[in-house]
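Could you join me in thinking about how sequence relates to backbone shape in a protein? We need material for that, and I hope you will provide a protein of your own picking. Once you have written the record down, we can walk along the chain together:

…
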Amino acid sequence: QVQLVESGGGLVQAGGSLRLSCVASGRTFSATAMGWFRQPPGKEREFVGAVSRSGGRTAYADSLKGRFTISRDSAKNTVYLQMNTLKPEDTAVYYCAAAFTIGTDVILTQDDQYNYWGQGTQVTVSS
């Protein structure tokens, strides 16, 4: 079982930056692929970025490449999402997710590939 707790959301002006954190419970962090998803108001949840179990592989939604960076710190059981040059359309609830990928170093980009989800953190970008 993995419990995920996100933090770092808030209100920011367009062009600003935020760093989201997601802390995972337990001793299994090194065995999990991690991902970030978001759900804008009135829309479906969408993929933001993902990092493999080792941290050596990452993937991003095409529209976010160059602005968002995902990373993980195994010593802190934490995955981060650095968001730069934020735009009003980045306004959403951001969720982190985890899935066990023991023995492989894959990146998971589909929400139905993840077993564990955080409660979400609100990011609001004002124009």
Summary: The CA atoms of residues 60 and 80 lie 13 Å apart. The mean pLDDT is 95. The first strand starts at residue 4 and ends at 7. The chain is about 0% helix and 50% strand.
